[in-house]
Design goal:
Blueprint lengths: L9 H5 L4 H5 L19 E5 L5 H6 L4 E7 L2 H11 L4 E3 L16 E4 L23 H13 L6 E6 L10 H12 L2 E9 L9 E9 L9 E2 L9 H8 L3 H5 L3 E2 L27 H9 L3 H13 L3 E11 L5 E8 L18 E6 L2 E6 L2 H7 L12 H9 L4 H25 L6
Parallel strand pairs: 1-2, 1-4, 2-3, 4-5
Antiparallel strand pairs: 5-7, 6-7, 8-9, 10-11, 10-12, 12-13
């Protein structure tokens, strides 16, 4: 049994934060500073917790009983924002049910995406990283055998999960859920519905077959917003009980987003400097004619415009590989990615009439793009902060799913238990 809760020695923690950060007490919440009490029955475990963005999205009405991550640096940030009481820093393979206290209504797992990503090497669930789904799932099955199985399980990952190994990895996850006594379905939620960042992600939501699922939360078939063709195709590939236990979750359409990328930009960021004129000219020189035309159009508009820039390897007209800078001015940032494995760090371009300025996106801006409030404490080191946010789940997407599906399901199941009656689908 693992009992240690400390992420790392204090001396290492000191290297991650400046002195002012360390003098601040832990936040009660990383979303808004609210101190709402937890609602009875809303308890959860948070696996592959990272910086606690699922916890931030669930909000203060949910009580975290246990959190786990193996990355000590992410764990230090988690503890700075949420305290040290619930976090166990360990490889999920080394955990047992004795490490998991109490009874959780919900188990949330944003398991590693690298082997499932379209940009990855294609190892899928056999990979060292994404393959940690299996030891995690062994824990869920052990909880069920001990009479402590969660009513709800949410798995979050990249949309490449649907097509990994021609759908076989998705089918394997579906079979695991079905075989453990769950009805389940999936939705694809995009952070761009709530935040100015393009970030579609797959959310597989499973409810125990003993749970109460009111009919209003399930539809007869897929809906275009939440169930695009990539998901419908993966679902059509399911067979046997995995197909039998599938449900199409019904969710309302989110309200139209009112924020744009420019709203999140810092004029004087502390984590990154503005580029020199020479550096900005060099960045513009890396653009193709089409992307330079976008810059010229922004200059001609007479309106301060903010664009996001990624560096990509492209083929020129002769077929030679060249590095290009590609800009978008559609009020939405590109998807944040961890600055490793060949992924470039996102830059911003601010165009104000003839004046053009550029720099790396700041740590705080990446946090804002994930829906984290400005009182969320980021690592002092830029790359660590970028890795933390780029590897996370968008907070308002979690909140939306909680409000419109998870919380009603918990309430219905608890009410059904108290009266020993209920309607299931």
């Amino acid at each position: 049994m693992i009992t240690a809760r400390s992420a790392m020695p204090t001396s290492m923690q000191l290297s991650l934060y400046d002195d002012a950060e360390l003098r601040r007490p832990p936040s009660s919440t990383a979303t808004s500073g609210a101190t709402m009490p937890a609602v009875a029955g809303r308890t959860f475990y948070e696996f592959f917790a990272g910086g606690g963005m699922a916890r931030a999205g669930l909000g203060p009405t949910w009580q975290c009983l246990f959190a786990n991550d193996f990355d000590a640096r992410k764990a230090a940030t988690y503890q700075r924002n949420w305290g040290e009481d619930t976090l166990v820093v360990a490889d999920v393979r080394d955990l047992s049910v004795e490490d998991l206290p109490g009874n959780a209504a919900l188990v949330w797992a944003s398991f590693p995406c690298q082997d499932l990503s379209l940009a990855g090497m294609g190892a899928g669930l056999r990979g060292d990283r994404s393959g940690t789904f299996w030891p995690f799932w062994s824990l869920v099955e052990a909880l069920r055998q001990a009479g402590r199985g969660p009513d709800l399980v949410v798995l979050e990952n990249v949309c490449g999960t649907l097509s990994s190994h021609n759908g076989r990895d998705f089918a394997a996850i579906a079979g695991a859920l079905s075989g453990a006594g769950y009805r389940y379905g999936a939705v694809i939620g995009d952070a761009a519905w709530f935040l100015p960042q393009s970030r579609p992600r797959l959310f597989i939501i499973a409810a125990s077959r003993a749970s109460v699922i009111p009919s209003g939360f399930v539809s007869e078939g897929p809906t275009p917003r939440w169930h695009p063709e990539s998901l419908r195709k993966a679902q059509r590939g399911l067979t046997g009980t995995a197909s039998d236990h599938w449900v199409w979750w019904r969710l309302p359409a989110p309200a139209k987003r009112t924020s744009c990328f420019a709203d999140l930009i810092e004029d004087a960021p502390a984590s990154v400097p503005w580029h020199s004129q020479e550096e900005t000219k060099a960045l513009l020189a890396m653009m193709s004619d089409g992307h330079l035309q976008k810059v010229h159009a922004a200059q001609a508009s007479g309106v301060r415009t903010v664009g996001s820039v990624y560096k990509r390897t492209r083929l020129d007209r002769s077929g030679t590989k060249v590095q290009r800078a590609e800009v978008r001015f559609d009020d939405v940032a590109g998807c944040l990615r961890t600055p490793a494995g060949g992924s470039s760090r996102q830059l911003i371009l601010v165009v104000d009439g003839p004046k053009v300025r550029s720099r790396l996106i700041s740590s705080r801006e990446t946090a804002r793009l994930m829906g984290l409030a400005d009182d969320y404490r980021l690592p002092h080191n830029y790359n660590e902060a970028y890795h933390l946010t780029g590897d996370g789940v968008a907070v308002p997407v979690v909140r939306y799913l909680a409000e419109h599906l998870l919380e009603p399901l918990v309430m219905a199941t608890n009410a059904g238990r108290s009266t020993d009656v209920g309607t299931t689908v």
